[in-house]
Amino acid sequence: MSDQQLGLFPDSSPTDLLLLTPADIYEAASEKLLLLLSEDRRLERKPASITPRALGDYLCMWANTPSGGLIVAGQENDGTFSGCSRLTSDRRNNLERSGDIYCPDARLECKRVPVSLQDGSRDFVTLFRVHYRQDRLVRTSNGAAFIRSGESKKKLTADEERHHEADRRQVTHEQEPALYAFPEDFSIEYLEQFSAAFHETRRFPSGQCTLKDVLQLRRLGEPSRDGFRPNMACALIFANDPGKHYPGAKIRFLRFEGEVEGTGARFNATKDITIEGPIPYQIVEAEKIVEQQLREFARLGPDGKFFVSPEYPKAAWYEAVVNACVHRSYMLRNMNIFIKMFDDRLEIESPGGFPPGVTAENIYRSHNPRNPHLMSAMYYLRFVKCAHEGTRRIRESMEAMSLPTPEFRQTTRDFGQVVRVILRNNIKQRRVWIDADAASLIGETIFATLTQDQRRAINYVAENGEIGVTDLQRLTGRTWTTAKRTLEKLVAMNLLIHVKKRNLDRDPKARYILRPKPSGGLALTE
Length: 526
What we know:
Elements: H1 3-6, H2 14-18, H3 22-28, H4 31-36, E1 43-46, H5 52-63, E2 69-73, H6 89-96, H7 98-102, E3 107-116, E4 122-131, E5 146-149, E6 152-155, H8 158-167, H9 188-202, H10 211-217, E7 221-222, E8 229-230, H11 232-238, E9 250-256, E10 269-276, H12 279-293, E11 296-300, E12 306-310, H13 314-327, E13 337-341, E14 345-351, H14 372-380, H15 390-400, E15 407-413, E16 416-424, H16 427-442, H17 444-448, H18 452-464, H19 469-476, H20 480-492, E17 496-499, E18 511-514
Parallel strand pairs: 1-2, 9-13
Antiparallel strand pairs: 2-4, 3-4, 5-6, 7-8, 9-10, 11-12, 13-14, 14-16, 15-16, 17-18
């Protein structure tokens, strides 16, 4: 691929350069291109004097980092070329063979790129292209493993190494023996549901396989001298108390006031609920809690009529919660799942980064479950479909309600990586035009004095022209009596009119409408 094909010269922009992949850079490598680039998540500069052993550490780093990376030997940190020609023949050969000696599991290629030194003499740099090893964690010849973290090389701890090996299926963490007694420590209810679903799905006669047979067939344990030894996946799904040995196997729900998560003395959570127990129980309880906290908005339907709907489609947030429980890293056993609700968004945060090969860019096309046996068991319990369509369902359900596209982000923190799914509502846009309409109808000064429930009632009338007690009850989640009292208060404030049949003290179809302004010349009779 030429420079012109890449669109780099003569009018390339900084954005063009940032969009190049390591493969693009390696193929189009030239003196001009290497001068335009800076050290970043794709490229490292090293002097030609770097030792082969030290270079092996960087080869290992890129081999463990998604998309891999590049190393330019013979270019200084400030971008100037020092070249490699001054090295002896043996030093140059050893440098180019450093991968074979000091990081034999790395997959790489290298080539020499002609450059000019500051004095005008011709020289060359050695460019290494290191490919990401999705199938294994790469170690140096002395057993160390490195990864790119931000703009630095980071040595992995033993726990982090095991986490990466589990992601690459080098170790099967979910099938490690669990320290639970079977069946004493397990939920018989969930086990029986699982066994019945297995028989139904496989079309086996009821009771053809014993419970232990079913668990063994689904790789959730194995026979032992004591009868049956469950594994980690089995314990997480069916044990009464998974948190006993996996403290982070829980969900914490936080409802924040406003759009920012405060800390310390400014911690602004209005709800803080922790859900513990088997994974199916956690999902069911999380479903109840989120539904209780969701607000409802009046939306204009395709038929031109308004209808009440929740601020997020259930298909989106429920799928995100299930995905977090099924695909999180349970090797980070002290980290729990977070569901964080703000005025403008809902965030579901799960421990562990994206599985190997999965990125925020290809997540709708990729399928590489981190816990395949756990996911398979959840399929029989009807929590997942195992059809590689969960993330697409999240996106499509948000689009169907004209809400922003969901965001998938991977963040590195001191204690490990996390993946966040962010669902945004359109509350800012809705508040601008609905509140403005309502305020103009009754006056901004009066509108500013109303309670939240009273404002929601006025907003609803501004959208729909009228409101009933049941409408407000559905909007606010209050009791029928409280909703009725709120509307009667607005009547007493001369903001609403109670329209009902005159001969009925209690009319279930009674409606409340805005009281016309006196200047309109209308009679204000009820």
